[in-house]
Structure formats: structure tokens, C-alpha cells
């Protein structure tokens, strides 16, 4: 986990996760993360728009040295957290499918 915190300049000097959670930078990034997940879910039926959203997301993280492995771990955690909140097995399967499909798109954008 601390490897991930090192990717954020604002968190590098903080010693604990509790300190990180109390910063406005953490709150702001958490909100951006939720907004990105929401945007991905809203684009489920528009494959070309979804690809564009994922490519932009990958490119915006490239300059911070975020790798595809970082994305894979983060997407897996997102799935674990969000899935229990969904009301149907169909919704959970759709979430898994879109997050699984996101990985190669993000990987290609990071590698470009």
C-alpha cells in the first residue's frame, strides 16, 4: 500500500494511512476516483466513448508513473468494494466484465 502512496507527491512524507485520510488531497482524489468509476459505468453501452474515457484516464496517470499493475490492483479493489453494493448478480457481472475489459485498453494507452 505504501508503494502506492509514494506515487502521490502530497503523501510521501506522511507516516500513516490515518494521516493520509485526513488530508484534503486524499478526499479530492477519492472523489475523482468515484467520479471516474461513475463515468465508466455510464459509458457501458457506448464502447467507443468508454474506450476514450479509459485512454484519457491512463494518459493522465502516465506522467505520475502509474503502471498497468497499479491499475489492475486498483480495479480489483474497486470491484471488491462496489460489487456488494449492487442489487443484482447481473449488475455485479456487468461491473466485472467492464473492469476486465478496461485493463487492455488502459494497458495500450499507457504503453503508447
TrEMBL record:
**One Pfam match, by short name?**
Globin
Task: Give every Globin domain span.
Answer: 1-112
Identify the Gene3D superfamilies for this entry: Globins
- Keywords (A to Z) from UniProt: Heme, Iron, Metal-binding, Oxygen transport, Transport
Keyword DNA-binding included in the entry's annotation: no
Q: Does the keyword Transferase apply?
A: no
UniProt-recorded Gene Ontology molecular function terms: heme binding; iron ion binding; oxidoreductase activity; oxygen binding; oxygen carrier activity
Q: Which domain of life is it from?
A: Eukaryota
Q: Which family does it belong to?
A: Belongs to the globin family.
Its assembly, as annotated, is: Monomer.
Q: What is this protein called?
A: Globin domain-containing protein
Amino acid at each position: 500500500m505504501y508503494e502506492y502512496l509514494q506515487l502521490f507527491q502530497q503523501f510521501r512524507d506522511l507516516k500513516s494511512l490515518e494521516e493520509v485520510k485526513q488530508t484534503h488531497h486524499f478526499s479530492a482524489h477519492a472523489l475523482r476516483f468515484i467520479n471516474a468509476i461513475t463515468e465508466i459505468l455510464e459509458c457501458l453501452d457506448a464502447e467507443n466513448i468508454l474506450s476514450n474515457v479509459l485512454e484519457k484516464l491512463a494518459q493522465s496517470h502516465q506522467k505520475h508513473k502509474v503502471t498497468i499493475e497499479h491499475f489492475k490492483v486498483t480495479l480489483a479493489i474497486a470491484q471488491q468494494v462496489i460489487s456488494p453494493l449492487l442489487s443484482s448478480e447481473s449488475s455485479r457481472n456487468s461491473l466485472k466484465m467492464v473492469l476486465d475489459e478496461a485493463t487492455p485498453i488502459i494497458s495500450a494507452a499507457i504503453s503508447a
